[in-house]
Amino acid sequence: MEITRPLESPPTFFQKIRKSMGKYFWGYFFVLPSLLIIVLFKLIPLIIGFGISFTNWSLLSAPDFVQLDNYAKLFTDPTTGKVFANTFYYAFLSVPLNLLLSLALALALNQKIKGLAFFRTAYYIPVVAASVAVSAIWVWLLSDFGILNTFLTSLGFQSLNLLQNTKTALTSITLVDVWKNLGFNVVIFLAALQDVPEELRDAAKVDGANSRGIFKNITLPLITPAIFFTAVMGIIGSLQAFDLVFNMSMKHEGGPARATSTVGFYVWQNAFKYSKMGYAAAISFALMAILLVLTIIQWQMRRKWVYGED
Question: What would the pLDDT profile of 99-110 be if each residue is shown by its tens digit?
Fold first, then answer.
């Protein structure tokens, strides 16, 4: 007797994809929305912006292709050199200072002291505070009639125009940036310090090591991954500095005399004040190239000093 089998319908496109991905299908499925967001709001705008950097688009007229003129202008525009110098000064002052202060505070907070939760919260409040509010507070504190100058004049000293002086304006804003972002690194370092095995410290004490030796030979090497992370993120963030500069020097247009203009601020001016979208895009991609090179250098150097990267 002949046995007939029912015809099986061919697999659908969805079933083929699921079969090819196997057990990882649902993982890819749930990652897809985030991937689409990255493509739509990161990758595509990046490609469009790169194309704009080769045009003279001014928001008021149709863009014309100008080849490498915008990138060539980076080497002849004196303001571009000034803002890049300001940005590097901002980064190389704020990042080491932030790392040193936050590590010192984390070491202090990693002790069994009363009110520890309060101090941890207090140091993190500026991080979540709005940059506009932080800027307004510090502009008032450093103004002619602020607390600092009122205190100095009461002692018979001359008031300091820190935000109006070309020699001190950028340094003042940089120190405000350090104060605002200090709490983020403190939290990272605290987590790293609490992850150091207590058994290693106890063994070192038994062997006669003092506190300095324990920190140098045990604690510091084990928290180098956290130091590496905060250093990389700090350099990337500081080279893109904009909000504090914008809010604390807006009346001076990045001044006085361009003393506080950073690359981010200059990009904003060219794009939305001078309507030079093409040139603004070129500056942005020049900064991105510098950030990429610095990040690659740091990534390659990590093997020499970061614990666990041998």
Answer: 999 999 999 888
- 3-state class (DSSP) for residue 219: helix
Helix/strand/coil for 105:
helix
Q: Which domains does the chain have, with CATH numbers?
A: 13-43 (no CATH), 69-132+168-305 (1.10.3720.10)
**Cβ 286 vs Cβ 87: under 8 Å:** no
CA 270 – CA 279 distance, rounded (Å): 7
CA distance 184 to 175: 15
Instruction: Please answer whether residues 48 and 41 qualify as being in contact, where contact means their C-beta atoms are separated by less than 8 angstroms.
Output: no
What sign does the CA torsion over 24, 30, 34, 35 have?
A: positive
Instruction: Round to whole Å and give the CA distance between 254 and 264.
Output: 11
Global pTM reads 0.86
